[in-house]
Model the fold of this input.
Amino acid sequence: MIDQIEITLPEFERGFHLITSMITKALHDLPEKGLLHIFIKHTSAGLTLNENADFTVRTDFQSFFNKIVPEKENYAHDSEGKDDMPAHLKSSIVGQSISIPITKHQLNLGIWQGIYLCEFRNRGGKRKIVLTVLS
Done:
């Protein structure tokens, strides 16, 4: 069986934002076992799983990505602002989807794992996420 819903996240500032609780709140009656696939419908943001307890992880992520994909390069694609092409590159590096096992009606995440929205634009706007539950 496949269930699918689309949710809209509020606008976030540039950075790495834990959205685990928003995802779990949107899901109702998870199966005994299965798989949750999460997909973001944007090319300038991404999704990842990582450390969810220490806030400095987010700061280090931001510093790392800004170092490997600087905004001060001379990108040809610049009509939407200096943060646009770097956001596309960062999104391609991180990816637009993740899959999480479902076990005993819950997401089977590790104790320190959280779901992150990686917002790479200064003003990315609301983001659409597709949640697909396979059971």
Notes: Residues 38 and 131 are 5 Å apart (CA to CA). The chain has three helices and eight strands. Residues 56-68 form the longest helix (13 residues). The mean pLDDT is 96.
